[in-house]
């Protein structure tokens, strides 16, 4: 029996890789190229971030990639002083939700923006980053 090749590109993503194998592995290839991508349903136009390979609205798998570009409005943020296992060395860090109008992106605020400078409604952009341990990721930065 032929050995099945394991598509484990997601191992390169994030402080702790929670998903080793998914149908959206191209996400990591795009990060390597400096692009943060979500998926769009070709049938109903629904946008997903993080990318999904199936549309929860029409239950179809007719998806294409779109780039998270431009700026989003800071909707919500919270500084974490305790993190899940594997994230201890990153503490404290700030998680946030950006509203891009037709989709939302959940992620972390760049450590270059002091917590005191954050305010609801401010414009931020989503950028790829390389974490201290060499893993790929993305952060929210000043415009
Ligand atoms: Zn759909």
Provide the descriptors you would attach to this structure in a database record:
single chain, 143 residues, mainly beta, five-stranded mixed β-barrel, three-stranded antiparallel beta sheet, 5% helix, globular, binds zinc ion
How many structural domains does the protein architecture include? Answer: 2
User: Could you tell me the strand content as a percent range?
Assistant: 25-35%
Measured between the Cα atoms of the first and last residue, the distance is 53 Å
List ligands, each type once: zinc ion
Largest β sheet strand count, sense and barrel closure: 5 strands, mixed, barrel
Q: Percentage of helical residues?
A: under 10%
The SSE order reads HEEEEEEEE
User: In DSSP terms, counting alpha (H) and pi (I) runs of 4 or more, how many helices?
Assistant: 1
Low-confidence stretches: none
**SS elements, strand count:** 8
**Nearest-angstrom radius of gyration?**
16 Å
Strand order across the biggest sheet?
4-5-6-8-7
| Backbone shape | globular
Characterization of the model:
By secondary structure, the chain is mainly β. The chain folds into 2 domains: about 10-65, no CATH class; about 70-140. About 5% of the residues lie in helices and about 35% in strands. It has 1 helix and 8 strands, in the order αββββββββ. A 5-stranded mixed β-barrel has the order 4-5-6-8-7. Strands 2-1-3 form a 3-stranded antiparallel beta sheet. The termini are far apart. The site of zinc ion (ZN) has 8 residues, from loops.
């Amino acid at each position: 029996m032929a050995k099945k090749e394991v598509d484990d590109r997601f191992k390169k993503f994030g402080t702790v890789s929670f998903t080793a194998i998914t149908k959206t592995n191209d996400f990591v290839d795009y990060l390597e190229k400096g692009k943060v991508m979500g998926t769009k349903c070709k049938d109903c136009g629904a946008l997903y971030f993080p990318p999904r390979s199936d549309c929860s609205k029409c239950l179809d798998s007719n998806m294409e990639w779109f780039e998270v570009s431009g700026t989003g409005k800071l909707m919500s943020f919270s500084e974490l002083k305790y993190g899940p296992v594997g994230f201890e060395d990153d503490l404290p860090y700030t998680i946030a939700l950006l509203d891009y109008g037709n989709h939302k992106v959940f992620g972390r605020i760049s450590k270059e923006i002091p917590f005191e400078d954050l305010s609801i409604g401010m414009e931020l952009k989503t950028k790829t980053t390389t974490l201290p341990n060499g893993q790929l990721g993305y952060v929210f930065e000043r415009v």
